[in-house]
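It would be a great kindness if you could assist me with a short task in structural biology. The full record is reproduced below for your convenience:
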Amino acid sequence: MLKNIDKILDNINEEKVIYYTRKLVNFDTQNPPGKEKELAEYLADFLKNFGLKTTLLDFLPNRPNLFAEYKFSDREKTFLFDGHLDTVPVGNLSLWNFDPFSGTVKDGKLYGRGSADMKGSIAAFIHALETLIDSGIKLEGNICMILTSDEEISGLGTRDFIKKGYFANVSIVGEPSCLEVNVAHKGVARWKLKTLGKSTHASTPEEGINAIYKMANVISELEKLAKSYSTSYRIHPLLGTPTLNVGTIFGGTKDNVVPDFCEITIDRRLLPGDRVEDVEKEFYHVLGKLSSEDPCLKFELKLYHSHNPAETPSDHPFVILANSAVERILGEKRPVKGFQATTEMSHLVEAGIPSLILGAGDIRVAHTVNEFVPVDELVKCARIYALILVNYLSSSK
């Protein structure tokens, strides 16, 4: 360990990391509609003040990804911080105790949309990097940031970044993890399932085929399938079992018409090793069995979204390095864990970049009314990031 690391960590400033987080929260980047451009342009100019080279990368119209890089040396060793600029919508404003874009600090918590997911972690990383640069420490290699648009809907910004030819040796995704190292996350696949019937007047239902009734039988079988995962499916040591959820339902055209269609959406969370095509076969097996029992059951199944799971081995040297930094800053050993939500880490792992999830805040308060991040976690997060960077890019490593 370098002798001056304690001094560098002591220079992590609570007021600065609060200010940076509040500044990011002040930008309304709700998605939809997704107005990340203004924040991306602000950060591009802001990071230049620290000596970073910044580039706005086309992703979606008026919705760029931001790439920033600081070279400590010409050594081919690159660390990447991966984050996203967009947030989910605020929802009902009347339920918020504070303006969701104010970044109000009260009782040790900083409130606002995106404070936990994940503007607080972005602010902590920026301040950690700023502190290292100001210290004059000699490190070997490069530090990069990719801050993406549209993560909350498509989650494809990091994939686009990799397709453009960018690469790194290791990466941290700054999603809220309560400052614990997470090395795996579930994937997700979503289908639209439609049952088809025959419409007729509601006074003569025997003349038609009620698509909603047909769907009720399908949903009952899907619920049985979902419950079976807890007893008959393999269990991942960090992620548990997969899940299945019917999230929306819509059908019929009028109350006095026998409905000729009903449509649901199915959300299936995937474990590392799961294949979308195998899950779809499982659905077709259930639907085929129902159709054989009821020839009037006609259906259409269509996949409309998928995002792969990801995992980095718990014994990977970078995971061990990161967890030792967490232990030093928190003063206690924390086990590596799995992240229940889906993130853009999957694109990094698929590209051969060992990655982990580590950030301030709790995923359970992300997307909620009165979202917040604890101020002390912001400070500790910045210190953890700084220590990881020093240990990874130290010339002695």
